[in-house]
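We store sequence with structure; for instance:
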Amino acid sequence: MNKFTLGLKMSLSILVFLILMAFSSASLFDEQLLYIQNKLVEHHDIEHGAEQIKRYQLNVTNTGFCRYRRYYVSGKVEYFSFNLAKFKDLDYYGTDKNGQLYLRTIGENVIVQTYKDKKGGDVDSMATYMIIPLKNIEPQDLVDLSERLIKMNAQLLAQK
């Protein structure tokens, strides 16, 4: 009977440990997503094309999608989206004052959609990168962003 009780206690301990690990990894996952979204929104350069762009939406979903939508004064809408599981690397062209962040994917995995474009109509296509204009970003912020995107990529691939 003593062995049975000891075995039961060990099983319960392992079960509690696994449950705690599952919840802590989920919160780490959400924390990574929140950091990535906040960093992109915090440094987004709204003045880039301000005379043409009315507003934008930039978010990272809890399913691992990075979405960027621009609404133009003319009514045109551009939409870019990719799953962080397809993230390859990032490049930044510019200075610490302003520049463009290229989020690159493995293959053509960025969904690009254009709506209400008077010149080209509605267009659906695929691309290998998404460009987000940024401002006031330090090199360390870019390194942190890159590291977290790589971690998210690994976590999402591990979930599959």
Q: What stands out?
A: The radius of gyration is 21 Å. Residues 27 and 139 are 27 Å apart (CA to CA).
